[in-house]
Amino acid sequence: MSKHTPKPTDRTWLKLAFCLAADVDPDTFFPDQNLSGLSKAREICKQCPVAQQCLAECLAAEGGKTAASRHGVYAGTTPKQRERLYHQMRVRANRQAAA
Question: How many angstroms separate the first and last alpha carbons of the chain?
Fold first, then answer.
């Protein structure tokens, strides 16, 4: 991260999050298997300037939960995608620690 990118624990980035704009319905990010709803959420996330921070914080908060225990769209990712990303991060971290 550059010195201008807030750390995931620094929540000031939320002020820039497109999902929190007054004209965005929060339910958009909980599409309940609705592909058109998922597309709408992803379109908002794709344009968001703080998507990286969103994903980092979400992965840290969800930890090792299963996809069934994760909810919503964060940084354009579904619960299953975040479960895979988290697993990949853990595998990478374990390999680096073993090296």
Answer: 23
